[in-house]
Structures are given as structure tokens and as C-alpha cells.
Design a protein that fits this description.
The complex is a heterodimer of chains A (148) and B (179).
Chain A (H helix, E strand, L loop, with lengths): L2 H10 L6 H9 L1 H21 L7 H8 L4 H29 L2 H12 L14 H8 L15
Helix pairs in contact in A: 1-3, 2-3
Chain B lengths: L3 E2 L2 E2 L2 H23 L2 H17 L10 H20 L5 H11 L4 H13 L2 H11 L5 H8 L3 H33 L1
The chains are: A mainly alpha (148), B mainly alpha (179).
């Protein structure tokens, strides 16, 4: 490679210098200095071209396309909140649809079927006493207990 | 099946990675084409809107950056020509110099010289130095042959150096006069 070819190559692509060109630069001081000067100019040009971009440019581009991760997370959060709210509504709705006292009574009966068949004999004064505890009074007299 | 690339599969996440990796470079490229920050941001938005619309069809995994620059260039040609903004280049450059660079005076000299280059020289140089594109990628982006691109790059650097030497000798003369 001669000096003319070397300089033409460096002027076109200063960063890419092939093996043949590097060999020429090692032998030719003037071309080596030319290469260094060109490198320096490119470095200065690169620095000078670094105009500051607007703050948050990438974020604004992503927001405009509806692709910003924070915005996507917010959408997912709203969707998740709606699902939870609907699920809670359904649960509460079904729960309230059953009369709680009646439901408990049915559950109690279902768990203690022997209550239907067991008989506990009590004295004649048991019922009036139990009613009196609740502030009540039997309006009819109970028949005396008959011996079996 | 399109496969995957360094930006992940061609879905939202991959596109988000693309935006975060190249939004600033695309903005800078557009800025140096139109020299107007507001317009460059609008054009960046348009560029990525078009890129997103074509994201599913994008096949060339190694040329995503060149692909983006091509879209940006087309957007600039389409919208900027329509708007025909009247820009005061020196006012823009002075404002920039105060915001960036360790040596604002040198940066301003280089920016002024760069802005004076003809479009045919400035654009391939911008794509190479700022975008890091190869001559072949630049050729595809600006629809020219690789040989023509290398020729323009070579002439652009010669012209830039010549302009800078003129600026520096002019600055030196001004300093002498001031004494």
C-alpha cells in the first residue's frame, strides 16, 4: 500500500484500518501522524456532535406508543383490582343469599341427627323455670306427668 | 417464527430495549439534519412510531440501527421539507456550546465548521461518526454506492479540516486585533 492509498482509506474510514494499512503506518512516519491527526479530529467531532437529548426522551416515546413499563404495570394493577373487586362481590353476594341463622340451624341439624330421636324426660317444673329465666310465663298449665 | 436478536424477541420488550438503546442517537442525528431541538424530538417520535409499526416484520437483526437511521432520514425529508423552518444556525450553536463539551469554544468551532459542510458530505459523516455505521450501511441508508460514500466521507473530512484551520486562523487574527 502506498501513501496515497493509505490516506484515502483513512479519510474514508479512520476507525477501520486493515492489516496492510497498519503495516504501512508502521513504516511511514508521515502517514502514521496523518492517521493520528485524523483520529483526533474524529474524536473531537464525535464529542462536538453529542448534543444533549431532551430529558426522558425514551420514556416519552414509549408512553406515546403505550409501551412504557410503568404505564403497563398501572394498567395491569387496575385490571387486577377490578378482578379482585368482582370476585369479592360474587363471594359476598352468595354469602348473603343464605340466611345465616337458618344456615347454621340446618348445619347443626345435619351434624347432630340424634337430636331427632333422643328423648330426655324432665320434671313438670322444668319448663316454667326455664321460661321464667327468660322472663316468660306459660299461659296454660302443663298436664302432670303420667307414669308409663 | 422470526427468531430473536440482541434486543430480545420481537415484542414489546425488544422494542423497548431498542428505544432505550437508540433514542438519543436518533435524536442527535435528526438534530444535526434539521438543527431544531423541538422538531428533532417530534421527528424522533415519528421515527419510532413507524419503527414500531414495522417491528414485527423486521428481519435483519444486525442492521437495526441502520434501519432506524433510514426511517429517521425519511421522516426528516418528509416532514422537515413541509415545515420549512427558518433557523438561525448561530443562535442554536451558541446555545449548544454553553450546554455541552469540556471546551465550548473548540466544540463551537467544530460545530460551525460541520454545519457549513454541504449536505452530501455532512450526512454520511454524521452517520459514520455519530451513528457508527459502516460505509455499506451508510450507502444503503442514503441510497448511494459504497464507493460514492467513501468518496464523500473523504471529501467531508478534508473540507472539515480546511474549515477548522480557517476558523482557527480567523480566531487567532481576532485575538491579535483585540490586543
Amino acid at each position: 500500500m502506498n501513501c496515497l492509498d493509505f490516506r484515502r482509506l483513512v479519510l474514508a474510514t479512520p476507525r477501520i484500518v486493515d492489516a496492510e494499512a497498519l503495516a504501512h503506518a508502521r513504516e511511514c512516519v508521515a502517514c502514521r501522524e496523518f492517521h493520528e491527526r485524523q483520529h483526533e479530529l474524529d474524536a473531537r467531532l464525535f464529542t462536538a456532535l453529542q448534543v444533549p437529548p431532551p430529558d426522558g426522551l425514551a420514556d416519552r416515546i414509549l408512553v406515546a406508543r403505550g409501551l412504557h413499563p410503568r404505564r403497563r404495570r398501572a394498567v395491569w394493577a387496575i385490571a387486577a383490582s377490578l378482578v379482585v373487586a368482582v370476585a369479592l362481590g360474587v363471594v359476598v353476594r352468595f354469602h348473603l343469599a343464605i340466611d345465616p341463622l337458618g344456615g347454621e340451624a340446618i348445619a347443626h341439624v345435619a351434624e347432630e341427627p340424634q337430636s331427632f330421636t333422643s328423648v330426655n324426660a324432665v320434671g313438670n317444673d322444668y319448663l316454667p323455670a326455664a321460661l321464667a329465666e327468660q322472663g316468660l310465663k306459660a299461659v296454660v298449665a302443663l298436664a302432670p306427668r303420667r307414669a308409663r | 417464527m422470526t427468531g430473536s436478536n440482541v434486543f430480545g424477541i420481537r415484542d414489546r420488550t425488544g422494542f423497548e430495549t431498542l428505544v432505550r438503546a437508540y433514542a438519543n442517537d436518533v435524536f442527535r442525528y435528526l438534530y444535526w439534519l434539521c438543527r431544531d431541538r423541538g422538531l428533532a424530538e417530534d421527528l424522533s417520535q415519528e421515527t419510532f412510531a413507524r419503527a414500531w409499526a414495522a417491528w414485527e416484520q423486521q428481519r435483519d437483526e444486525k442492521a437495526l440501527k441502520a434501519w432506524l437511521f433510514t426511517i429517521a432520514r425519511n421522516e426528516h425529508a418528509r416532514i422537515h421539507e413541509r415545515r420549512k423552518l427558518d433557523i438561525d444556525p448561530d443562535a442554536e450553536l451558541d446555545a449548544l456550546a454553553s450546554r455541552t463539551a469540556a471546551d465550548p469554544a473548540l466544540a463551537l468551532d467544530i460545530r460551525r465548521a460541520f454545519a457549513l459542510l454541504p449536505d452530501a458530505y455532512r450526512e454520511p459523516l454524521l452517520l459514520q461518526v455519530l451513528g457508527g455505521l459502516s460505509s455499506a450501511e451508510i450507502a444503503a441508508t442514503i441510497d448511494a454506492t459504497e464507493e460514492a460514500v467513501n468518496m464523500r466521507l473523504s471529501r467531508a473530512r478534508k473540507a472539515l479540516r480546511s474549515l477548522l484551520e480557517g476558523e482557527q486562523s480567523g480566531s487567532a487574527r481576532n485575538r491579535e486585533t483585540a490586543r
